[in-house]
Structures are given as structure tokens and as C-alpha cells.
Amino acid sequence: MPVRDTSSWNTLLSGYSKGGLINEAHSIFKEMPYRDSVSWTTMIAGYNFVGRFQVAIQMFLEMVSASDVLPTQYTFTSVFASCAEIRALNEGRRVHSFVVKFGLSSYVSVANSMLNMYAKSGDSNAAQMVFDGIVVKNTSSWNTLISLYMQTGQVDLALAQFEQMNEHDIISWNSMVTGYNQRGFDVLALNMFSKMLKESSLEPDRYTLASALSACANLGELNVGKQIHAYLVRTEFNTSGAVGNSLICMYSRSGGVDIARRILEKNRESNLNVIAFTALLNGYIKLGDINPARKIFDSLKDRDVVVWTAMIVGYVQNGFNDDAMELFRLMVKEGPDPNNYTLAAMLSVCSSVASLNHGKQIHSAAIKAGEALSVSVSNALITMYAKAGNISCARRVFDLIHLNRDTVSWTSMILALAQHGLGAEALQLFENMLALGMKPDHITYVGVLTACTHVGLIAQGRSYYKMMKEIHGIEPTSSHCACMIDLFGRAGLLEEAQDFIENMPIEPDVIAWGSLLASCRVHKKMELAKVAADRLLSIDPENSGAYSALANVYSACGKWAEAAKIRKSMKDKQVKKEQGFSWIQIKNVVHVFGVEDGLHPQRDAIYKTMEKIWKDIKKLGFIPDTESVLHDLDYEVKEQILRHHSEKLAIAFGLINTPEKTTLRIMKNLRVCNDCHSAIKFISKLVGREIILRDATRFHHFKGGFCSCRDYW
After folding, report:
1. Starting from the edge strand earliest in sequence, which strands make up the sheet with 706-707, in order?
2. Where residue 301 falls among pLDDT bands split at 50, 70, 90?
3. Which of 171, 214, 246, 353 measures 20 to 30 Å from 399, CA to CA?
4. Ramachandran category for residue 636: left, alpha or beta (phi over 0 → left; psi -120 to 50 → alpha)
5. Within this chain, do residues 632 and 500 fall inside the same structural domain, yes or no?
6. Is 401 within the bounds of a domain?
7. Is the pLDDT assigned to residue 601 strictly greater than 60?
8. Is residue 329, in this structure, part of any structural domain at all?
């Protein structure tokens, strides 16, 4: 057998290297009696080819330090490619120094690979310096710089470079179209795409078309998207992969979900990704068409966390909380670990139904998934615990994220404290927030003004309302104005409340007039109540609350005939009164009660328990407030009606079915009446339990015969 020369060794080395057999190639490399630049470059390129970029860089450094072989332009292009792939900026700079040392800077291929390395590593200054030093710039040089400027958001500079080019290739156009799309300049992306079709002889490729369709999806441009689709059909373009995904996304997000579904079914076997399926899923969800969305979800084989979350959020947004909870349980059992978006969505479900037990389970899942301290999950936990009546747990969560609180964190906690009647704490927290330089938003101020309202801080409320406008430049919304009207009204300052309404910066709405009307009922102001009700009904003629509130004002003032007329008018106009309900959750089952509820399986036990409690609290000094029954009835009948109010029945049920000394949490859809408020104070003392009641406006914590609201609500 003839003796192998270096060329023979290199041929063998190249074969193994190009075949991906890099370990075998390395063994041959070690056996070689002499290694020239081709040998070293082949190994560096081989390691680069199989993705072992750090080894390729080390191979180069060994070449220049431990051998007398000089690197060539091909050596440098290979090692710069490896540096670029892993963003190895420091190593890239060392390699650059060897380019200068060996005098290879003038080679365009070396300069372009060096430019690409700096661009991908994010060093725009060095990239610009290299670019400026290239005497004869080719299209690749320009394209690299354009991509760099797009990646760093300098779209104007990218356009300037693009317009200086004498000739554009497909990469040039794609850099602009894709860059605009990825940076959120979707209109400019479509304009550039249109310019390409008009001015260039080049045909758009899959990257151009996918980016253009993505821009249409972001803008909801269904007509433009259809034109691109027509182009795909006309040119018989392959719509598998990225283009097919983008096409489905475009139709799904632009109101053409049925077309998207047909494309998906046609391309079922193609390489469609989870993004396309998720877009179609969201398309149906936005339409409120949950069943097709669930069928798509069930048809997916590889469902990642994004798909699970999209389906869960779809259920939540359309009010299917039980389905969301069921799907989340299935996800925990057999799906991927939930992420912070999944957990935040599920916590919002728990908040809406005030389910503390479910909320605690989600909290446990968040801890297990390592997401409990993420800002979005923590903010959702604060809201969940607060709405479920556990303000101490809400505060503990807030304290745990002291290093990464955002405006939402502070706002959530301020709102929570305000809703629980802890006005002074809420305002102190707001002052702490300002001291740290955090900027409040309009929702923060809703919390601040609510805090003032619930504890009757009139002067502070005026001051904060002024600060909101003059210091933080926040224009008052209807919510802020309603808080101010409520603030004045609860305090009996009805003339000031009326004056505020007449001078509001925005047109008074249902909430504004409703707030004034509610205050008129508390303070028995008939004439003003009639004005407020008339104005409210002129905006919303079928608002049952306005009729009921006005009738209640007349009843409270003993004007039974006028109250009867209002109720008859309500009946004649077929306006249905909102029924009062209370509910309590025990062992993950929600039990709902209405006034004089006779449907519950434990009805007899509940009524018997309530009758005994009624007698016992009377012995403690409780006097029924029969004025809370706004009908002209005998005293005994009124007392019986009061005894069977929904929140009292829920409490009796809770006392029967829960261990002694445990806290009862009751929810009510309307404002608690005076009699129930007084009775529950006595009940809490009688049974030695804390009773937390959430009504339509706030939380009441009853304990030892007292309420956290101090009878100001």
C-alpha cells in the first residue's frame, strides 16, 4: 500500500467530518503525522457542522497557540460561525485579534463572517466598525447590518441601509419584511412586501410570505390576507410548514375561523405547529364558540402548556368556570406543568366564585411548579385571597414579593384592604408606594378612593381626588366619580354629592346616579331620590335597581301608597327585580339560599336552627329592625321575613355543617340589610365564631359581637 501523504489524510478526514462522524474524524486527526491548515480547518468546520461550537472554538485556539500552521480565510469563517451560533462575544473578539495579526481583514468572506458574529452577539458598534472597514461590500455585508439594526429595534437605520444597496436579494427583502413584523411595525411590513412584489423580479419565499401573513394576523387585515392566500393558490405554493401555520393564524385572528378550520383539515398531515392550532383555538374562543375549540384541543396529540392555557382561558373568558376547573385538574394529572399564565387564569376563577379551598389548591400547584413568587401569579393570589375573605393571607403573599412588586401588586393590595374596610392601612400602603417612586394608575386611585369611602374619610378623599388629577395627571373615570359620590352620600352630604354630579368632568352614568340613589335610601331623602331615579331610568329604562331603590325610599319614609305605585309600574313594564341570594361553600360544594328558601334538602334543620338562634340573640339584647322589611305588614310577619333572609339561612346551614370555632364565609349578591348586619354581630358573639360576609360593596368581618366596618357601610 502506498504511503499516505497529507492530502490523502485530509481527504479521509473530510469524508468522516462531512458525514457527521466527528469522533472518528478526531481519531484520524490525532493519527496524522503532519497537520496542515486544511486539516485544522476541516476539524473546526466539522465540529461546527455537528453543533459542537465551543469545541470548534477551542480547536482554533489550540491551532494558533500550539502549532506553527497559519489559519486561512476558511478557518476564520468557520470559527466565526461557531462564535456567532453561541453568542461567544469574548472568544469572537480574540479570534478578531488573530485576523488582524495574520493580515486577513481585507478578505470579504472573513469580514462578513466577523460582521455576522458581532451582529448576532449584539455588539452593534463593533459590527458597524467592521462594516465600515469593508472596502468592497457585497450583498451579504449589507444584509447582515440590516438584520442587526432590525434585531436592536433601529428600524430607521435598517431602512437607510436597505435603500443604499445597489442590488437586493431575497434575504435583503426578508430582513426588512420579517424585521418590521417582528418589531411590531406590521403596516410597514406589508408596505415593504407590496414594494417587493411591484419593484423586484424576485419571487417571495416561505419566510417572506409567513411574515406578511403574520402582519395581516396582527392587524386583523382579512382582505389583504385573502389576497396573499390567492397568490399562494395561483402559484401553487407549498402551504405546509411555516406558511400554512401563518395562513391559519391569519384567518383565525382576523375573523375567518371557518376558513382556517378547512385549511387545517386539508393540511392535517403537514407540519403544522402548535401556534397555528392555538390561534384557531383562540379564534373560536373569541367568538364564544367553545365546542369546536374543545374538539380542536382534544384532537391535538402533543399539547404543550400554551395550548392547555389557551383552552382554560377560553373557558374562563366565556364564563365556564366549572369546565376550566375540570380541565385544569386534568392538566395537573396528565398534562405539562402549568405556567404562570395558567395559574393566574385559574386563580381568577377562584376569585370570581370566592372559592378559598380551590384557591389554596391552585396556590399549592403554583408552589410545586415554582411559580408562586412570579409577579402575575402573586398578584392573582392577592386578589383571590382577598375576594375569598382571607385578607391576612393576601397580605402575606404581598409581603413575600417585596423585591419584585409592580403597580398591579400595590394596587391589588390597596383594593383588597379597602374592600375589607381597612381604610387606614390601605392609605398607608398607598403612601409607601408613592415613597418608593412607584407610579399609581387609575385603578390604584379607585382603591384609594374606595378606602376613603368605606371609613368615611371625607377630607382625605377630596385631597386624593385632587392629587390624582393635578399630580399624577389621571383624568377621572366614571368609577372615580362614583367613589366620590358614594363618599359624600354615605356621610349624609347629599347636597355636595348632587353638586359633584352636576359638575362632573364626564357625563353622569348609571353608576353615578345609582350611588346617589343608594345614599338617598339610607338617609330617607325622597325628593332627591326621585330625581336620581328619573335620571338613571332615562339612561337605562329597564334598570330594576332604580325602581326597587325608589320604592324602598318611599317605604322607609312610610309612603306605602307611593311605594306600591312604583312596584306596580315595575310589574306593568315587566321589569324584573334582582333577587337576593347568599351562598356558602362547604367541602367544595356551593350551597345557595334565597329569602324564605324552601328547596334545600336540610330545610327543616336550617329553619329550626335559625329559630333557636333568633330567640338566643334576643336574650342577648338583639332587637329586630322591622324597618328593613319595606312592606306594610304586621310586626310578626315582618319578623318572620327577617329571620329567613338568605344570609341568615346560609349562616344557620354553615353552623350545622362545619366544626365549632371555624370561620364561616358567606357571599351575598346584594347589599346586606340593617337587620342582618345587626343580627350577625350578635350571632358571632353567641356562637363564638368569626363570620365573614361579602356583600355587593365590601367585606364585613363579624367577631365577638362587633363588625370591622364599625357600623359605617
Report:
1. 589-594, 581-586, 664-668, 691-694, 699-703, 706-707
2. confident
3. 353
4. alpha
5. no
6. no
7. yes
8. no
